[in-house]
């Protein structure tokens, strides 16, 4: 166990908990969404690729607050080298997303239910996303913003829009249009 590991926005959740297992309680206190860390599937998969910056985004708390709270609980000094850009929070869709039309949703995945059942949603969503055709859309419902999954989908040529809903987030997935693909490849 590396107790001297720095805690930064780029620290992966799994690395943090390997170095500082007692910080699991601090994460859960910071946001109820982190209670899912007790799920072994989530711990083995998503926690290994999720940075604290993404975890803060998922929990809808400022990353500066989360990292500061974790550093304090670990007995580490504040790192003044962090610049404001290190703590930028990713934006979510505000207002209507022009390409989202609920009538075009062909499938829905309940990420929370899959996690509760001991399954990881990534493979299910990827399988379904690869079945999308034309203007079809997929929908992920979750109590958290599935930031690592969105990055993965976008890296594989899908467009995504995470929209706040009463229950948490409604995340829409669609195929990039040919004009969007051309812009992305430039």
Overall description:
- This protein is an alpha+beta fold and 186 residues long.
- The protein is built from ten helices and four strands.
- The protein has helices spanning 13-19, 23-30, 40-44, 46-49, 52-59, 63-74, 111-116, 121-129, 147-155, 178-185; strands at residues 105-110, 137-142, 158-164, 169-175.
- α2 runs antiparallel to α6 (63-74).
Count the strands?
Answer: 4
Q: What percent of the residues sit in helical stretches (DSSP H or I)?
A: 40-55%
Outline: elongated
* Element-by-element helix/strand order: HHHHHHEHHEHEEH
Widest beta sheet: strand line-up: 1-2-4-3
Outline the biggest β-sheet: 4 strands, mixed
β content, as a range? 5-15%
User: Residue-averaged pLDDT, rounded?
Assistant: 80
N/C terminus separation: 43 Å
Low-confidence parts lasting 5 or more residues at pLDDT below 50? 80-91, 182-186
Number of helical segments with 4 or more residues: 10
Structural class: alpha+beta
Measured on Cα atoms, how large is the radius of gyration?
17 Å
Short recap of the structure:
The protein is an alpha+beta fold.
Write the layout of secondary structure elements.
Elements: H1 13-19, H2 23-30, H3 40-44, H4 46-49, H5 52-59, H6 63-74, E1 105-110, H7 111-116, H8 121-129, E2 137-142, H9 147-155, E3 158-164, E4 169-175, H10 178-185
Parallel strand pairs: 1-2
Antiparallel strand pairs: 2-4, 3-4
Helix pairs in contact: 2-6
Task: Sum up the structure in keywords.
disordered C terminus, four-stranded mixed β-sheet, 186 residues, alpha+beta, 4 strands
